[in-house]
Amino acid sequence: MSIFDILFYLFAAAIVLSAAFVSLSRNIVHAAFSLLFTFLGIAGVYVLLSADFIAVSQILIYVGGILVLIVFGVMLTNRVTNIDIRAAIRSRIPAFIICAGLLALLIAFITQAHWIRYDEEPWKKTPWGKNAVEQVTKPLQGSVREVIDQQGSQGTAAEIGKLLMSDYMLPFELLSIVLLVALIGAAMIARQEAVQKKRPLSPSLPTEVSQ
Amino acid sequence: MVIEALIKIAIVLFVVLTGVSYTVLVERWVCAWVQDRIGPNRVGPLGLFQPLADVLKLLLKEDIEPLMAQKWFHWVAPVISIAVAFSVLAIVPFGHVLMLGNHAIPLTIASGINIGVLYIVALTSLGVYGITLAGWSSGSKYSLLGGLRSSAQMISYELTLGLGLLSVIMLSGSLDLNTIINSQAQGLWNVVRAPLGFLLFFVSSFAETNRQPFDLPEAEPELVGGYHTEYSSMKFALFFLAEYANIITASAVMTVLFFGGWHLPFVDQLGLSSLAMTIIGVLAFALKVIGLLFVFIWVRWTVPRFRYDQLMNLGWKVLLPLGILNIILTAFEKIYLIA
Q1: Is B119 in contact with A65 (Cβ distance < 8 A)?
Q2: Pairing with B10, which of A127, B18, B110, B274 sits 20 to 30 Å away (CA)?
Q3: How confident is the model at residue A174 (pLDDT cuts 50, 70, 90)?
Q4: pTM across the whole model
Q5: Helix H or strand E encompassing B104
Q6: What local confidence, expressed as pLDDT, does residue A211 receive?
Q7: Do A34 and A80 meet the contact criterion of CB atoms below 8 Å apart?
Q8: Neighbours of B260 (CB within 10 A)
Q9: Interchain contact, A60 vs B148, CB within 8 Å
């Protein structure tokens, strides 16, 4: 076993064990903190796959953003450590069916997906858009391993940036609109209370405005 | 390669740990000076052995674990804090390449990381866990409130920190710390090219390191000791260590991003040998870090603490719009002034 294998199994074990703890723990705070190790393990696997940008984004977004908010919410909930979060028995069968379906779908995807190997030449026929790949990878020839041997890993950030600004422009912009809508929605929810509080103080105000 | 990295790790750890203990001493001196007192001067000449006495005292204290504490989390929280504080140092270039014969040693622990800036941002966002966990696992109201405050504060100021960083990334066109330093060595330092970005980064560093005027997580009059109220002995010392290590890390990162790292202007025209250049570079880096450390301490003892709502207002209503303005200004600068 090479160092790569050892590290991979270490990360994989961390992911599986902590994920199991997330779903099996009855203490919701413990579960939330266990999720931290799941996310970190996944970031580690990304690093092993030389997807440096995605690995850091994983930590930045999931660990540094989403999970902090989850932990924050869990801790703000009153007397949360005493809540028994075991699911009711009657919801076990539907849960089992959904999970089995998801597992089958995932296995189908994993076995049928085309995984690029070191000895392939992915720049010749690609599932991605044509223009950007031609632009970005024009000088590349030979298999993945040969290219890496020749020029070393340059990191993926620049390539991802170029692809986002060319072939994936539309999805990228759509996503930013989705995020903007979410932001506006959050601001609206936060404002609601202030508007309702003011109303009883000046009941005549709306009619005055309408006149 | 491995031995080289281990030696570099040992040196950096030694320097930073010594740096931490002497930063504490300098902080006490500066504090005394600001308050017109004499400060620690009894232990050894000029009080120089004070840090040793402090460490011994902390080590010999009894380690008290509160009855209501969640044992494992209570133990792991300071470890997370200190680990995060030190791991950022892995990519900070503290000097140029050191040439030993024909063998070039880059003066960074982990050299060749292309996404250094993102690594810094990602790791600083982990620091919040140590504090939150400490607050929650202590089983005390004061600790919990301190932990919650720090979560809210760190989430709010991470945004500004990132927006301040963006101007550096835009000007240098790279996420690699060495490229950023080189681009500053060829032109002006980023503190001149992006003053607004520096201001944003500087202010949010104070919030991220929980220093005055933003040390609300441990505001003594309201929250006793904040998140580490229930900590004693070496576990408390670890939090203390993490706080000062964070300040050193923040100063080092600021030096690299805004003050040209190991670069000093006009030195390359003197025609010195490469070894002398490297040594001057390391010294310049150390000097800049020490200068920024002094600013951190100076601010702590001269600026009063913000109120919690003022802190949130400043973060979301002043710094965030300024951050967006900063991106637009930097874009104009990049297009019309530099290119």
Answers
A1: no
A2: B274
A3: very high
A4: 0.81
A5: strand B103-106
A6: 40
A7: no
A8: 25
A9: no
The token pair at B69 is 């504490």
Assess B151–A contact: CB distance below 8 Å, yes or no: yes
Is any Cβ of chain B less than 8 angstroms from the Cβ of A65? Answer: yes
CB pairs under 8 A between A and B: 67
ipTM of the complex: 0.78
Partner residue facing A36 (CB), from B121, B129, B147 = B129
Rounded to 10 degrees, what is the CA torsion of B75, B77, B82, B88? 140
CB atoms B125 and A29 under 8 Å: no
Asked which of A92-101, A121-130, A196-205, B165-174 is least confident by mean pLDDT, the reply is: A196-205
Pairing of β B103-106 and β B97-100: antiparallel
Q: Is B294 exposed, middle or buried (0-12, 13-18, 19+ CB in 10 A)?
A: middle
Distance CA B204, CA A158 (A): 27
What's the CA gap between A194 and A189, in Å, rounded? 10
Q: Treating both helix axes as pointing N-terminal to C-terminal, what angle do B195-208 and B141-172 enclose, rounded to 10 degrees?
A: 160
Listing DSSP states for A137-197 in one string gives HTT--S-HHHHHHHH----SHHHHHHHHHTTTHHHHHHHHHHHHHHHHHHHHHHHHHHHHH
End-to-end distance of chain B based on CA atoms, in angstroms?
A: 39
| pLDDT tens sequence across B29-62 | 888 888 888 878 878 788 788 888 888 888 888 7
Is there a contact between A63 and B152 if contact means CB atoms under 8 Å apart? no
Percent of chain B with pLDDT over 70: 96
How far is it, in rounded angstroms, from Cα A186 to Cα A194?
Answer: 14
Distant-in-sequence, close-in-space partners of A197: CB < 8 Å, separation ≥ 6: none
Q: Which CATH architecture has domain A1-80?
A: Up-down Bundle (1.20)
**Which of B118, B122, B151 lies closest to A68 in CB terms?**
B151
CA dihedral A121, A124, A130, A133 (to 10 degrees): 40
Which chain A residues have a beta carbon less than 8 Å from that of B132? Answer: 68, 71-72, 75
pLDDT band at A104 (very low <50, low <70, confident <90, very high): very high
CB pair distance less than 8 Å for B126 and A63? yes
CA distance B126 to chain A (A): 6
| Closest CA in chain B for residue A43 | B122
What phi-psi label fits residue B47: left (phi over 0), alpha (psi between -120 and 50 degrees) or beta? left
Q: Choose the closest CB to A60 out of B125, B129, B144.
A: B125
Residues 6+ apart with CB under 8 A from B325: B196
